[in-house]
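With this grant's support, we have settled on a layout for protein records. An illustrative entry appears below exactly as we store it:
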Amino acid sequence: MTQKIAVLCSGGGSNLQALIDRIQTGHLDAQIEWVVSNNGDSHALERARKAGIEAIHLSAKTEGTSEAADRKLLSLIRDRGISVLVLAGYMKMLPPGVLELLPGRVINIHPALLPAFGGKGMFGLRVHEAVLARGVHWTGVTIHLVSEHYDEGPILRQRVVAVQPGDTPQSLGSRVLAVEHDTLWREVRDLLERIR
C-alpha cells in the first residue's frame, strides 16, 4: 500500500518538485498528501497545485495566532494518516507535538555536511557563503531526523560535493542543490521501507 507523506516548504520548492518527479516516474512509491508553506508567496505551493496536490498556506497570519497554526498542522498530520513528514527548505521551528506524533519520521535536508555550517540562520546562500569564507575543500548535503534544535537531529545520509577554485556561493549552491534533488527521494524511499 502506498504510504502518505507530507512536505513543508518556505521557498521555491525545488526539492518538493524532485519528490513529485520521482513519484511520477515510479522511483518513489509514496503519495504526497499535502504541502504546507508558512509563506503564502512560496513557489512550492504553486508546484503542488500544478501536480494536483493540496497546497496550504499555514501561518499565524492565516490562523490568527502561532498557536492556532501549530494546532492546525498537528491536526493535518494526525487526521490525514501521514507516515513521514519532509522538511524541504522549511524555515520555521516545528511545534513539539509534531515530533511526538511522528517519532523518527520527520526529516530535514540541509545544504552542508552537518554538524558544520548548521544551526539557526544557516540556510540558502548563507550556508554556501560560510563554506567559502572558511576555505574548506568539501561541502555537501545532509539529511537528518528533526529534533527540537535546528540541524541537530541524528544524521541519516550525507553526500559530498567538492568546492572548486573560483566558486561563488551561487555556483556552489547550484551543484549542492543538484545533489539534494538526487538524495532526498532516496532517503524518503528508504525511510518508508524501514517503517513499512
Summary: Residues 114 and 136 are 14 Å apart (CA to CA). The helical segments are 14-25, 43-50, 60-63, 66-79, 96-101, 125-134, 169-195. The mean pLDDT is 96.
